[in-house]
Each structure stands twice: as C-alpha cells, then as structure tokens.
Specification:
about 425 residues, Rossmann fold, 3 domains, five-stranded parallel beta sheet, 16 helices, 11 strands, about 45% helix, about 15% strand, Bact_response_regulator, CheY-like_superfamily, Response regulator
Length: about 425
C-alpha cells in the first residue's frame, strides 16, 4: 500500500532568535479554545536554546521524566520525586508571571543540589524535546508570538539551535514513517484480543501482557527507561499483524498534534514491515528482549479506597479493573485505621467528606502511624479551591483528586505512585 513517507520540513523560524537574546519566546495558539493546550514557552540564553515548556499538564510531564531518570539514579527515590513534584505544584499555584513552573523547579533542583548538573541537563533535554515536537507539529500560521526579554536565566545547559532542529527533524520523520498505524507517542497499545495474543509464543505473551495495561508509548518509556520511538518501532510489526491495537491518547493528550497526517503525495515508505504473525514474532524476537518490565512495574499493588458511598467505591473498582491491583474498599471511617494497619496498602484513596471522622482527620491519624506514615494518600474531594488543596496538604495528603473524575485521571494517579 502506498502512503506518504516524506515528512514536511520543520518550521525553523519558531526557534529563531537574534544573537545575544536572553529571555522567553511565548507562542499562543488562538485556534485552540482550551487555555491549557494553547501556550508554549521557549527559553533562550544569549541566543542559545535552554528549555521548552507547554501549558498542558507540566506536572504530568515532570513526573514521567523523573520516573525515567530514577532508573539511572538510584538516589532519586519515590520520596524525592514526590518532594520535587510538590515544589513544582506550589510554583504552579503561585503567580509566577512569565516563568513556567517546570523551568523554575529545574532551577530549584540546581540551587538545592538535589540532582547533579548532568542529571538536570538530561531531564531538561527530555522534557524540552517532547514539548518542541508538539510545537513543530502545530500549524505555525495559528501561532501568535511574544518576546519577553530577561536579564539572566538559570544555567541548566544550552543547545545550538541548528543542531537541535536537525535532531528534531530526524525524530519527527521517524515518527511519521510509522504512520498511518502509529499517529502519536501518546497512543496506548493493547492486545487486540486474547485469541490474537495467543498467536505469540508464551514467553512473549507474558512479557507483553505485563506492559500493555493502558500505558502510552511515552509512559512505557518512563517505565522501561527506553526511548519511546524505539518502543513504537518494536511493536510496529505486531500492529501490522493485527495482534496489537492502538487506542487514542487519553484526554487531554488526544488534542495534541499528530505525528502522522495523510497527505496527497505518496512515495515508497521505509522497508516493508512483516505482516504475518510468524514474520512479526520472528522480527520481534530480538527487539523485545530489551523490553523487560522491572519487578516494580509489574507487581500487584494493594490500593485501599475509603468512602462512605458504596456507589463511589464500586465506581473506583470498576475504573481500576484489570490494572493488576488488589482493591480493598472501606466504607466506615471509624474502622478505617485498624483495617489500613492490617492491609499495609501501597496507596490510599481517601474521601474528604465522611461522617464521624472526615478525610482530613483520618489522614492526620494515618500520618501518625508508624506503619502507614510513608504510604501515599490521595484525597478525593468535590472541591477545586486552593484553600481545600492547602488544607489537604496540611493534613498530610500526598495528592488530591477532584470529583467527578474520569478513568484517565484515576489511572494517572496509579501511574504516578505505583507503576
């Protein structure tokens, strides 16, 4: 089948600044109604690129790349990652003006010496590349440009714009060559069916079943400490063979630009991919050997859900079904602490508004328990105000989830604290 294989040239002017410019280039996409999707911030020091941020969920992006970095730095523990996230969250809540919260937190990491300069540079590069790919895929005619001059910027590492654009061009061409089967790094691979999975050798079935649990290519990159493009290439033959199906990115990532959009002109593609199951499994035999999930990524986790509403408990169980989790529900807040001490869960989902003992009081008791004090506690609340979030933090909550929530929001919490 013929399909386009020549990717358009990247709009290089988006990264062009005058020599010596220090500050921020802000791009606003007026064609996007959702504010969180519409703004890019590019940081430059003396005309050299430093960092790129996007207004879409910067905390999720930081979480994910910290997770990947933790494979390479044993001292980057879950507790340290949570501390970094909380600092970023406080910066995001504050009115930081033109400074993006994720950029500020990198400066904070350098100032506090929580990570080495090399680690910060690597983290900055991963985050920036992801943001720039999305920017360069956006229709440039819809972008409104603003220049913000600054005196100095934190020294996080600098890249020459020409070499950076050349690298991004090659990456985007590689993603484009995987279309039309793969159209986004945020797509989520699943087995098409049990019958299709059984076409694979048992060892590969087991190996892939531990990975294909609703994670996107980008999330798999964080879990496996591997390039998401490499992962996509390795599962590509199984997509062609009908063994793996791709689901759309979870909102709001489904609104980001796609890496493949069909065009009128068609030219021969890169080497033809195998399409029969036998050819596909043979092609993957070597490639998949590096995609070994870590024991932490595949163990069964215990999640305790505390809510006086049986309907809400049932809904949480339904949303988390099939996620390799042992879900325990508790409806009586008076008995919750005793049950939690016995369960020793890996994650606690705690409703705020309960009779007898409310969520804030129970969270305080959990933090005083020697058995439970380090367990992540996510407060589930119907309030979105800043005061409620601060109150949850003061009670000892690790995070919060606002009702009503979608499955993707709940799975994001699972990915953040358990994967």
């Amino acid at each position: 089948m013929d399909r386009p294989a020549v990717f358009m040239e990247v709009p290089t002017h988006l990264l062009e600044v005058k020599p010596g410019f220090t500050g921020i280039v802000r791009y606003q996409d007026d064609s996007i109604a959702t504010e969180e999707l519409s703004s890019w911030s590019l940081f430059f020091s003396q005309g050299r690129f430093v960092f790129a941020s996007h207004s879409l969920d910067p905390l999720e992006r930081l979480d994910r790349h910290l997770r990947r970095l933790s494979h390479q730095i044993p001292s980057l523990t879950r507790e340290k990652c949570l501390r970094i996230r909380q600092q970023a969250e406080s910066l995001l809540i504050q009115d930081s003006g033109s400074m993006a919260a994720d950029f500020q937190v990198l400066g904070w990491l350098a100032e506090e010496q929580l990570l080495s300069a090399e680690a910060i540079r690597k983290l900055s590069a991963w985050m920036s590349e992801e943001v720039l790919q999305n920017l360069l895929l956006s229709p440039s005619q819809d972008l409104k440009k603003q220049m913000i001059r600054l005196g100095t910027l934190p020294a996080l590492g600098q890249w020459e714009v020409g070499s950076l654009l050349s690298h991004l061009q090659k990456r985007l061409e590689a993603w484009y060559a995987l279309g039309p089967q793969i159209t986004s790094p945020y797509q989520r691979p699943y087995f098409t069916s049990r019958a299709q999975a059984e076409r694979l050798p048992p060892e590969q079935q087991e190996q892939l079943s531990q990975l294909l649990r609703g994670f996107s290519f980008r999330q798999l990159s964080a879990l496996l400490d591997q390039d998401e493009l490499l992962i996509a290439r390795r599962v590509y033959p199984l997509i062609n063979a009908g063994i793996i199906v791709l689901r759309d990115p979870q909102p709001p990532f489904n609104q980001l630009p796609k890496t493949y959009v069909a065009r009128a002109a068609t030219v021969p593609t890169l080497s033809e991919a195998p399409t029969t199951p036998l050819q596909a499994t043979a092609a993957l035999a070597n490639g998949l050997q590096d995609l070994h999930p870590t024991p932490r990524a595949t163990q069964t986790w215990t999640v305790a859900c505390i809510d006086d509403s049986q309907a809400m408990l049932s809904e949480i169980c339904r949303l988390l079904e099939g996620q390799n989790l042992a879900i325990h529900t508790i409806s009586d807040s008076l008995k919750a602490l005793m049950k939690l001490t016995s369960l020793k869960p890996d994650l606690i989902l705690l409703d705020v508004g309960m009779p007898n003992i409310d969520g804030y009081q129970l969270c305080g008791l959990i933090r005083k328990s020697s058995v439970l004090k380090e367990v992540p506690v996510v407060m589930v609340t119907g309030h979105k105000g800043l005061i409620d979030r601060v109150k949850a933090r003061m009670a000892g909550a690790t995070d919060y989830l606002t009702k009503p929530f979608q499955q993707e929001e709940l799975l994001q919490i699972v990915f953040r604290y358990l994967s």
